[in-house]
Amino acid sequence: MHAALKRHGLWVIAWGLLSLLGAALLARHALQQEREAFETHARIAHRLLSQQVVQHDAVLATLALLDSNDDSAHPEQRLPSVYPHILSVQRRARDASWPDAHLQALDAQSRQLGHGLLVSTGFAQGRFDLILGALPASYLLKIDIRSMVPWREWPMEPAQSPVRVALLYQGQAFDLQAGRKLLPDAPGWHFDFHKVLASPSQPFEMVAQRHVGWGELPWLWMLAWSVLAAALLRMAWVLVRQRDDRHRAEELLRLGQVARLNTLGELAAGMAHELNQPLTAVLANTQAASRLLDDDPPDMDAVRQAMAQAAGQSRRAAEVVGRLRRLVEQPATIQTMHSISLSEAARRALYLMEPELKRQQVEVSLKASDLPCRVLADEVALDQIIHNLLMNAVQAMHTTPKEKRRLTVAVEPTLTQVHLLVQDQGPGIPAETLNRIFEPFFTTREGGLGLGLSLSETLAMAMGGTLSAKNRMPHGAEFCLTLPLAEPIVASS
Amino acid sequence: MNMPLSPLIHLIDDDDAVRTSLALLIGTVGLRVQTWQDPQAFLAEFDRQSIGVIVLDVRMPGISGLTVLDLLKAQGVDQPVVMLTGHGNVDLCRRAFKSGATEFLEKPVNDELLLETLQNGVRQHVQSRQRIQVDRQTRARYAQLSEREREVLGLIVTGLTNKEMGRVLSVSPRTVETHRANLFDKLEAESLAQLIRQYAALVDEQATP
């Protein structure tokens, strides 16, 4: 675990930071949404309550205005049945007076101000009286606060909502909606809303409060984000590792090539030293012998000795060569011979070479016979020969103008064998090198090993076939691989 | 100082066949050859006074020919050194010449090239040894001169007559003549020309230490 943490430490830290950042953003967003909802709800509640209390003023004003001066009619007594929150209506007739002096004084004051006044009784119990002094008659409404609230339009669910809504008046509070109970200094966030109702007669202050505790944060979303971040980072990690792996593989491949070249160089150096020693001795001995023979009289014993040494050293050189051959010889082993379609093999080789051919802008045409040109061959060896021939043809056209780079591959059966012809549009093979191109280590290419054609010919012969080369008119070279047919074609026509 | 009668070629190569065949080849032109299989033994024992050339194979087990070359030069060995190698490349060649090799030959080596190189080397070495010996004799004779005789020699080299020298040294021409006879005697000079040719450089060297 410790080792894993060490190895993936950066990734773990990145995951932690990403999780924290995401969680913080999510929490902020959630809190902001809660606050917006709270404020919207509070404003709606305030508007609804304001509308209600304004209605009270309107009712009182209407009663005062429509007073018929008929003390016996009392239409106002029917109001409580229409408005359930109006518990009762009291009327003071023109010449009568209120039973207590306080009311009398408020009546007078109200008449002077021109709007209703509150009679402060029992606010904490959810009641209040509203008096409007007017002529000919004054009215007093007894109102129940809870019934006053239009619950049907209320923006919150009164029983479940965590928001506390209360009305304040002169230090007395009446809770319309209890909200969630909480300790005074509970940890979390606190939203507050204070606004006085829009009525000069009933200046209650509406208070809304909301507390969001830690428990209300969107923990599930935060957890989900953390898991998602882990998944994303894991994906990134896999991608990075894949890229590194690919990088390393390419590097290894390159190193392998370099190592192979180095090995070849080392081999050549070793071979040079191993062969140079006996050759030096042979040369020195024979030259010494020929100088001794010029003496008069010649010291024949010394000459004989020198010649014997030269012969011995020649054998030593031959042994070195033999040892080297046994060391590097990978006999062109033909594993197993199968019946293979030569056309298919040619198609496959061309398919494999497609990227290289495109890069060199070589136009390719394949002329394959309809006849089943099946030969007995080792698949790997056959592929290698065709690949070598194609590569040679492409490289021969390096100096050919791009629009003339054309490679033709033809499969032509005869009665007993099949020819695979590879023709290029290069400069052709110089006459003086034409009969040397299949020799090992013979190459005309800079940096070429001179082994490709030599190996191809060895492989072709091992499969009972031949490989030949000739120049075409007016230019270009043609290589011909001939292999015996697996089943001779019966002359049908 | 005893000078060996005929030059001696030191041949160092770890390969028996190469060593004997090259020794035989070198022997055909009358040069004496001493062969060494082990470079360490050669470094420890070879005659540093001998006149001749050292032939060194580059590729030897244990200690490379280039290292031997460096050691020889560090010890002040004055024999010319010819390097032999199986696969010479430019770097190796440059390195050898920088270290003071006289020649760099590739194996298998052509007889004429090798023998000519060795003979040239021997000639070179003989000349340099002679130069050293002449120089040593000249200095020994010069050391025998008295202070006054050296002054006279310095004036002779600048081309003054006896009279002029007498004026410069405030002595009589006759006294100058005596000093002159003495220094000719001590320096074993037979003519004025020989005296000047042999000692002018030394006089200049003494005048400007």
Could you explain how this protein is built, in words?
The complex is a heterodimer of chains A (493) and B (209). By secondary structure, chain A is of the alpha+beta class. In chain A, 48% of the residues lie in helices and 19% in strands. Chain A is built from 10 helices and 15 strands. A 5-stranded mixed sheet of chain A has the order 10-12-13-15-14. In chain A, helix 2 packs antiparallel against helix 6. With 209 residues, chain B is of the alpha/beta class. Helices cover 58% and strands 11% of the residues of chain B. Chain B is built from 9 helices and 5 strands. In chain B, strands 2-1-3-4-5 form a 5-stranded parallel sheet, with helices on both faces. In chain B, strand 3, helix 3 and strand 4 form a beta-alpha-beta unit. In chain B, helix 6 packs across helix 8. The relative contact order of chain B is 0.10. The chains are: A alpha+beta (493), B alpha/beta (209). At the A-B interface, helix 6 and helix 7 of A face helix 1 of B.
Taken in chain order, the helices and strands of chain B follow as EHEHEHEHEHHHHH
Low-confidence stretches of chain A: none
What's the pLDDT, averaged over the residues of chain B? 88
Spatial sequence of strands, sheet with the most strands of chain B: 2-1-3-4-5
Class of secondary structure makeup of chain A: alpha+beta
- State the major sheet of chain B: 5 strands, parallel
How many individual β-strands of chain B?
A: 5
SSE succession of chain A? HHHEHEEEHEEEEHHEHEEHEEHEE
Largest sheet of chain A: 5 strands, mixed
Structural class of chain B: alpha/beta
Q: Please compute the radius of gyration of chain A using only Cα atoms.
A: 55 Å
Shape of chain A: rod-shaped
Number of strands of chain A: 15
Strand fraction of chain A equals 15-25%
Q: Spans of chain B of 5+ residues with little confidence (pLDDT < 50)?
A: none
